[in-house]
Design the sequence.
């Protein structure tokens, strides 16, 4: 590009900014929205073109893409001009929008590349010669974007737009002193944040400045005019920028609908094969659900006819209870006496009927030694006038009391529950990959999240889409989201079609989906940088990487291996394993694989089962992150799997634990099939014994660091929001204050510096 | 010898069955462009490659007994010379004047040397039964030949006055496979043919310095890394903790395909822990396994090129995120060699009878040269191809050969459904001599080999259902596998007397009840006082033919040496045997 044209652009941008007594952005936008004042919009583009262009350029590094993104950003501004109450300066808003539009372009490009790669498995990756600059720029934008608005704005204006402080103060409607104070504070905050990532502010600003110069060199000279023309064109423009603007606008509106209820389509039932570790504090009673269709059934009715027997469920209920008692007697670590279980059921039943407990109940229960006698007892206790509805409630009550009487709690699950749980545990969940929610403004269920790589997302489902019908069945007024879930569920490879539309829109879209396996990551990075990429590095200089182990399942080992490969290629030397709030799908088999993979030999733990039979778990010599110091973050997680992993790491001196004690019970539960061949029961079968004698449950961290309620909530939110394919607009994308993580970094930095294992 | 002589290359076909020092010359004239031989019918099965004359000529050792010659400039097969019965390896001599090949069936090392008017077999040395790999020292004076079942490395003096002769024999505690000669100071690394052991041999003193155990099996490629500081080994890792459930197979929890980097300093130091400074690369990922990594080579800039034999691909390292780029080649790429400038890689596709040419700069396959005319294969031939095809398994993670290495066993435990449950890992049985040992599986629940094959593919490999034809082909192949030869066959001194006495002990102790001759097994199951984790107490006795070549004993491999079966576990003995009787019994078993 000719040098002249660059200077023309720069001069033009500066001259606009320098003009005294200029109208504020808000005034310009008002003029534009009320009278389509082209000049007003042109002034806005001139004023902020450099900021927007620079942001787009830093993300995309491609002239055409940056131009599209830059124009799309201003298009969004034009379309929203009359819809939003604007601040005096729109710099902040433009900056955030530019970053989002650019991210969308980058993701789109990545998707296209991925598609191309699938076609030509052998095509070569594009080299990235300016990776370091890119990374610094990305760090700057990420951290700037995370600053509170009042600090971000002066930084944007003064550092990225090149305004003087009095120009910036005027634009923002602040006093010069306020501006300078906030500028200094913002600078300080930014510096602190960058330091945390192992970067210095001056280096980043210098890079950004150099990058700005490159950006300006690449900036098309007629950008202002072209953008303004596009913005004021009556059709609202077409082509790439317009499409981008559309996509961005949709993303902005959809999160404004209030979420009133959320059912995860992948609702977890914590089950597993063989040994099962259930959450200690989450009883899973059967037959508690009110809907008969979804309530687990224990055993099959024995064919008693409704009319012939005044208490129709008695025989069947006795049959099911007896089957459970047989399994409990045989398999339970410390089985209760049958009479105690029957007594508990009887008391619970009587309580539900409102009847008093007869004095001789214990004696009558003691006489029950056969299934038929149990049926007779149930019949005696059953109220005469019970109707169908009440029958079911009473039955549920009896079973509740019955199962609650089993030490360590027992849980009964249906075939389909087990199947879903197995799919989740194996990370081979079959479905269309959406999270549903109720929508309050219209009588349709809403797709809250179409999961990444899921069939729905591939078919074009968008966050916020309302589901109009599924396979021809109308979803209108269907309030029971679980019902919708069952419509979507089915075997892998089968087809399902849904009609959807965006809220308020009239145009519907038909999504043709093929149910498939939806991988749900259990190992996540520090922050998502695009749909399939993570940023793992917490401290670049020291080489400290971070992963959040969200859950432990069959895929966790594989995911850790993939992450290790990336981190090694990236030059990391230490890793933070965050296990806080980690939960779900727990299984002894999977956690043994994961613990084994992190330990270089050694005794992991043992399981003490019935009759004091002990099975010992030893690790082989293969070790991921070999030679790296590891610090694991812990809090009051109740899953025994996660606690077991932490204990094995601590007991073998493989990791230092920071945080709060766990909240697990150290019990092993195993699942067994009931005689009906369909339902399963999960009962206590063993106790977990730690490798180091005298260490017990819960697991206590080496360095205890607590979070206050507020911090805890923000950390939790921060961790879970990472999973969303795109962050809701207006989400506080600022990393929360996290003393536990701070301490972790301190430990690792010290270890790396001293060169000794923590 | 003057360089100009190399420009004309005339090939000589060696006549078979010659004496060790026979010289055969059959001048077949120049491989001129207008006189290229058409590929002849018959399977070739290329297994090893070597380049000569600054990369101008590529020699391919074929299991069929021939060496194919490829002009790498014309990318044409210019000749094929018959040199033996079943070639297993080949390497160039350091002076560039020829190649050395080994013949597994004839038990010979053959020197093919270029002469004024061509190249031909200049010497044959009878080395040992079943040589499987060969290395030549830097100065060309010595050849090292590893022989599988005799468990030793023969050192051949190549430059001896009266022609090459076997100078020395280094016994090994395991059946050897691949070898790699390190320099400065010279060390010979010899890998286990089935399991994960490495022997480090001092080639000057001709003795074993150390034997190390890696958590690995099926070590098929050895090389030195680009920085010269690491030993690279391609192999697999089987976890006894994982099961053969779909989830564990899918996520690579059960079996992984790896490249391991081991510090050479640790290799050279007999006391060092090989794993302490090692790194394990995982090839393949969920959805795309990289079954059976095999031959590998390293370019001068450190890029690793690695054959993935089970999935018919070659993986190339050097992606930015540490991932590997994968290129499709022919079936069962097992060996590869790099052009001197590092630009091209040549890959021997054993089951396609072809050589693929890979442009490493462009990262694409530029040619596939057929070594033979397509031939009608027998059922056993097709079965062999299937046996080594990882695509039979879910996502290509592993083939039958991954665990039943070369039809034998990797000696490890696998937790399959073969015994009806998980959490009961069992010792992988050898399939050698399997045609005579029905029923199958440790619990002896399967009568037909066909049923066992089908169930292994479906419930262990988690692959698609086999067609009836595939089933039959696999069985036909398995039926061709002979039992492993008894180790006594290779003994220096006759054991006949001890064997005779041991046979009497075997009878007297009642071993024959379960281990009935001639197969030394039976169709029934027996309780020998061992139980597995699920409470199974009766197992089908494994055949004792070739038992001296086994590495692990009992259903869970609890005994790691044959004497332990009797001394530690007192298996099947009515009374405790006196030492001499035990020795006789062991001699008898080593003769089966």
Sequence:
């Amino acid at each position: 590009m000719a040098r002249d044209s660059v200077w023309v652009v720069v001069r033009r941008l500066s001259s606009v900014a320098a003009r005294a007594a200029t109208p504020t952005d808000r005034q310009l936008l008002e003029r534009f929205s009320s009278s389509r004042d082209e000049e007003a919009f042109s002034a806005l583009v001139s004023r902020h073109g450099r900021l927007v262009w620079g942001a787009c350029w830093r993300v995309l590094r491609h002239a055409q893409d940056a131009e599209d993104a830059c124009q799309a950003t201003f298009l969004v501004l034009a379309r929203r001009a009359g819809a939003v109450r604007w601040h005096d300066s729109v710099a902040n808003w433009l900056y955030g929008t530019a970053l989002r539009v650019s991210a969308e372009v980058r993701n789109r490009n990545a998707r296209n590349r991925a598609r191309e790669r699938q076609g030509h498995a052998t095509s070569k990756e594009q080299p990235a010669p300016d990776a370091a600059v890119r990374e610094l720029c990305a760090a700057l934008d990420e951290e700037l974007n995370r600053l509170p608005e009042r600090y971000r704005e002066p930084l944007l204006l003064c550092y990225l737009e090149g305004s003087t402080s009095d120009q910036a103060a005027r634009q923002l409607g602040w006093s010069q002193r306020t501006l300078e104070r906030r500028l200094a504070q913002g600078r300080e905050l930014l510096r602190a944040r960058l330091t945390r990532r192992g970067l210095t502010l001056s280096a980043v600003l210098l890079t950004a400045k150099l990058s700005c110069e490159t950006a300006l060199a690449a900036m098309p000279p007629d950008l202002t005019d072209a953008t303004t023309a596009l913005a004021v064109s009556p059709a609202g423009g077409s082509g790439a920028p317009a499409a981008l603007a559309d996509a961005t606008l949709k993303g902005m509106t959809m999160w404004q609908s209030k979420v009133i209820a959320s059912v995860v389509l992948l609702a977890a039932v914590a089950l597993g094969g063989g040994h099962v570790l259930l959450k200690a504090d989450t009883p899973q009673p059967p037959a508690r659900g009110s809907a008969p269709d979804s309530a687990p059934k224990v055993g099959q009715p024995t064919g008693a006819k409704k009319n012939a027997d005044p208490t129709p469920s008695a025989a069947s209920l006795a049959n099911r209870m007896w089957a459970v008692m047989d399994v409990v007697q045989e398999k339970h670590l410390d089985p209760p006496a049958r009479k105690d279980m029957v007594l508990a059921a009887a008391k619970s039943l009587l309580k539900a009927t409102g009847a008093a407990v007869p004095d001789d109940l214990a004696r009558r229960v003691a006489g029950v030694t056969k299934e038929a006698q149990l049926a007779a007892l149930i019949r005696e206790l059953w109220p005469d006038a019970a109707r169908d509805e009440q029958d079911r409630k009473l039955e549920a009550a009896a079973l509740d009391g019955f199962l609650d009487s089993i030490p360590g709690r027992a849980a009964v699950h249906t075939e389909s529950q087990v199947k879903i749980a197995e799919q989740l545990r194996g990370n081979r969940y079959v479905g269309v990959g959406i999270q549903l929610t109720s929508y309050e403004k219209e009588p349709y269920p809403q797709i809250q999240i179409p999961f990444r790589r899921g069939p729905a997302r591939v078919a074009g489902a968008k966050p916020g889409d309302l589901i109009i019908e599924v396979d021809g069945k109308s979803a209108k007024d269907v309030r029971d989201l679980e019902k919708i879930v069952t419509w979507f569920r089915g075997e892998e490879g089968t087809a399902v079609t849904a009609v959807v539309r965006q809220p308020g829109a009239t145009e519907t879209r038909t999504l043709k989906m093929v149910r498939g396996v939806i991988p749900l990551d259990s190992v996540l990075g520090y922050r998502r940088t695009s749909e399939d990429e993570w940023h793992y590095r917490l401290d670049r200089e020291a080489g400290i990487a971070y992963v959040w182990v969200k859950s432990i399942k069959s895929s966790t080992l594989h995911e850790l291996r993939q992450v290790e490969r990336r981190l090694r290629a990236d030059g990391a030397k230490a890793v933070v394993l965050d296990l806080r709030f980690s939960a779900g799908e727990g299984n002894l088999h999977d956690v043994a694989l994961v613990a084994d993979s992190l330990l270089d030999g050694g005794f992991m733990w043992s399981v003490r089962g019935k009759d004091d039979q002990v099975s010992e778990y030893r690790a082989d010599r293969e070790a991921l992150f070999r030679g790296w110091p590891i610090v694991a973050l812990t809090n009051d997680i109740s899953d025994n799997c996660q606690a077991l992993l932490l204990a094995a790491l601590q007991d073998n001196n493989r990791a230092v634990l920071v945080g709060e004690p766990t909240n697990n019970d150290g019990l092993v539960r195993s699942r067994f099939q009931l005689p009906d061949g369909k339902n399963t029961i999960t009962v206590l079968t063993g106790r977990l014994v730690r490798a180091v004698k005298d260490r017990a449950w819960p697991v206590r961290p080496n360095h205890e660091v607590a979070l206050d309620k507020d911090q805890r909530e923000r950390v939790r939110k921060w961790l879970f929001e990472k999973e969303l394919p795109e962050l809701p607009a207006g989400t506080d994308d600022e990393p929360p204050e996290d003393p536990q993580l701070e301490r972790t970094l301190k430990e690792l930095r010290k270890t790396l510096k001293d060169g000794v294992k923590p | 010898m003057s360089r100009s002589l190399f420009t004309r290359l005339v090939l000589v076909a060696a006549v078979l069955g010659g004496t060790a020092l026979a010289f055969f010359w059959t001048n077949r004239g120049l491989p001129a462009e207008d006189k290229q031989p058409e590929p002849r019918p018959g399977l070739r099965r290329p297994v090893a490659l070597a380049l000569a004359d600054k990369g101008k000529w590529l020699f391919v050792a074929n299991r069929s007994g021939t060496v194919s010659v490829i002009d790498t400039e014309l990318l044409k097969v210019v000749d094929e010379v018959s040199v033996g019965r079943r070639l297993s390896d080949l390497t160039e001599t350091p002076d560039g004047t020829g190649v050395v090949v080994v013949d597994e069936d004839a038990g010979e090392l053959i020197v093919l040397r270029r002469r004024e008017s061509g190249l031909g077999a200049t010497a044959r040395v009878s080395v040992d039964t079943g040589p499987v790999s060969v290395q030549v020292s830097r100065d060309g004076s010595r050849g090292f030949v590893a022989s599988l079942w005799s468990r030793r490395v023969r050192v051949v003096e190549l430059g001896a006055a009266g022609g090459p002769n076997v100078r020395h024999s280094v016994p090994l505690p395991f059946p050897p496979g691949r070898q790699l000669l390190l320099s400065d100071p010279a060390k010979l690394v010899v890998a286990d043919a089935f399991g994960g052991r490495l022997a480090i041999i001092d080639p000057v003193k001709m003795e074993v310095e150390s034997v190390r155990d890696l958590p690995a099996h099926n070590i098929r490629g050895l090389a030195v890394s680009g920085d010269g500081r690491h030993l690279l080994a391609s192999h697999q890792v089987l976890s006894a903790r994982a099961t053969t459930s779909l989830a564990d197979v899918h996520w690579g929890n059960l079996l992984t395909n790896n490249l391991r980097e081991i510090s050479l300093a640790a290799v050279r130091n007999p006391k060092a822990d090989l794993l302490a400074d090692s790194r394990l690369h995982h090839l393949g990922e969920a959805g795309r396994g990289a079954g059976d990594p095999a031959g590998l080579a390293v370019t001068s800039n450190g890029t690793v090129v690695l054959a993935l034999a089970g999935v018919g691909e070659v993986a190339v390292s050097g992606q930015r995120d540490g991932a590997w780029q994968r290129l499709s080649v022919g079936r069962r790429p097992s060996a590869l060699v790099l052009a001197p400038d590092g630009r091209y890689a040549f890959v021997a596709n054993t089951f396609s009878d072809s050589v693929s040419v890979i442009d490493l700069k462009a990262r694409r396959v530029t040619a596939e040269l057929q070594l033979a005319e397509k031939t009608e294969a027998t059922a056993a031939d097709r079965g062999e191809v299937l046996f080594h095809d990882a695509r039979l398994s879910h996502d290509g993670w592993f083939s039958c050969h991954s665990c039943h290495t070369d039809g034998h066993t990797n000696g490890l435990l696998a937790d399959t459904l073969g015994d009806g449950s998980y959490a009961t890992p069992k010792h992988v049985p050898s399939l050698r001599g399997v045609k005579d040992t029905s029923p199958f599986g440790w619990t002896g629940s399967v009568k037909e080999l066909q049923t066992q094959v089908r169930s292994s593919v479906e419930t262990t490999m988690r692959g698609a259902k086999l067609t009836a034809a595939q089933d039959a082909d696999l069985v036909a192949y398995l039926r061709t596998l002979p039992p492993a030869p008894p180790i006594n066959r290779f003994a220096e001194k006759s054991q006949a007397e001890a064997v005779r006495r041991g046979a009497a002990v075997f009878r007297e102790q009642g071993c024959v009840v379960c281990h009935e001759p001639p197969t030394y097994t039976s169709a029934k199951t027996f309780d020998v006082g061992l139980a597995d984790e699920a409470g199974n107490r009766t197992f089908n006795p494994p055949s004792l033919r070739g038992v001296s070549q086994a590495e692990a004993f009992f259903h869970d491999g609890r005994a790691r040496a044959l004497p332990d079966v009797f001394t530690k576990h007192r298996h099947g003995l009515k009374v405790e045997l006196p030492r001499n009787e035990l020795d006789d019994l062991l001699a008898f078993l080593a003769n089966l």
Notes: Chain B has a mean pLDDT of 90.
